[in-house]
Design a protein that fits this description.
Length: 139
Amino acid sequence: MNKLKLYVLALLIITSMTMAQEADDIIGKYRLPNQLDIEMYKLNEKYFGKIIGFGDLDHEHQIDINNPDKALRSEPLLGKVIIKNLKYDPTESEWVNGKMYGPEKGLIFNLKITELRENEIEVVGSKYFFWKTLTWDKL
């Protein structure tokens, strides 16, 4: 009986170790609910995301018309870095303290990525006392 308990415990430990998220697991391409396609990448131990496409939308020449800085409103959205400074927290297995620019409204939100799954990730965006959990699909 003790051998069985030891075997089950070892199996649980091995399973949890193989399923644990690692910092660079976030790197890749995702489709956001607003149909923007982004690419997450690493730079100096932090994670960033830039717009690489517009999904099914026909916005090849879209510009950043809602930017709060009027001087930036004529810049194209394609290639724009909209996610900045996410840092991996190994104790929580989350990416935290990031900022995300939402070009639809020209707002900057706090961003945290809470869970990676096989084909999607779960993110939490917040502004002041409001927050929203969204799912991004892996491309």
